[in-house]
């Protein structure tokens, strides 16, 4: 039996979940944005899938490797667990055409604004595309979502109140599921 399609939130990483300090990759330097943990916990309680889609061009640039990215993601999970929150999956695009690591120094459809990571996640997980959204802090995040056929919400990188945005989206989602009996 196939798992039923679920509402899904795609999240950019740097600037949305963690403070973007410029190529963050060391667990000891991890700082979550102020509302990331409560927002993700709220999504988990609501039964949503939470999937991170993140460009990590520091890998292509030779600044750190994929193992460092995995360690950073493990640290994010540990920090979120302290707040009864979790990410269901991380999708990483380690590519950049100006990179110095040959195998990653390419333009790749996974690299946002390409939709590759989102489309892969939709193939791998029981995502309901009619109840999916991407929250990001850059135009490339929004463009990737549009190319994947889902809506997006631009968060201000200055205030990045993910929890407020998630609350509004969940209210809209609940409202869409309720039949309109007012006519």
TrEMBL record:
It comes from the Bacteria. GO terms for biological process: carbohydrate metabolic process. The active site is at residues 12, 14. This is D,D-heptose 1,7-bisphosphate phosphatase. The record marks 54, 111-112 as: Stabilizes the phosphoryl group. It is found in: Cytoplasm. Keywords: Carbohydrate metabolism, Cytoplasm, Hydrolase, Magnesium, Metal-binding. Its cofactor is Mg(2+). InterPro entries: HAD-like_sf, HAD-SF_hydro_IIIA, HAD_sf, Heptose_bisP_phosphatase, Histidinol-phos. The keyword Hydrolase applies. One of its GO terms (cellular component) is cytoplasm. Belongs to the gmhB family. Its EC number is 3.1.3.-. Mg(2+) binds at residues 12, 14, 137-138. The lineage of its organism: Bacteria, Pseudomonadati, Pseudomonadota, Alphaproteobacteria, Sphingomonadales. PANTHER family: D-GLYCERO-BETA-D-MANNO-HEPTOSE-1,7-BISPHOSPHATE 7-PHOSPHATASE. Pfam families: Hydrolase_like. It is an enzyme of class 3 (hydrolase). GO terms for molecular function: metal ion binding; phosphatase activity. Substrate binds at residues 12-14, 20-23, 54-57, 111-112, 138. The keyword Magnesium applies.
């Amino acid at each position: 039996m196939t798992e039923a399609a679920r509402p899904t939130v795609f999240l950019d990483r740097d600037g949305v979940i963690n403070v973007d300090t410029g190529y963050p990759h060391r667990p000891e330097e991890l700082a979550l944005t102020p509302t990331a943990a409560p927002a993700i916990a709220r999504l988990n309680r609501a039964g949503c899938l939470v999937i991170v889609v993140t460009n990590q061009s520091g890998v292509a640039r030779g600044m750190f490797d994929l193992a460092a990215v995995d360690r950073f993601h493990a640290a994010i999970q540990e920090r979120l667990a302290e707040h009864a929150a979790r990410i269901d999956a991380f999708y990483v695009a380690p590519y950049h055409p100006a990179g110095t690591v040959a195998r990653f120094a390419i333009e790749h459809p996974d690299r946002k604004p390409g939709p590759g990571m989102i489309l892969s996640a939709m193939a791998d997980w029981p995502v309901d595309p009619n109840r999916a959204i991407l929250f990001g802090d850059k135009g490339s995040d929004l463009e990737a979502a549009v190319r994947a056929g889902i809506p997006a919400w631009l968060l201000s990188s200055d205030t990045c109140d993910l929890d407020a945005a998630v609350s509004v989206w969940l209210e809209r989602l609940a409202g869409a599921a309720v039949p309109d009996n007012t006519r």
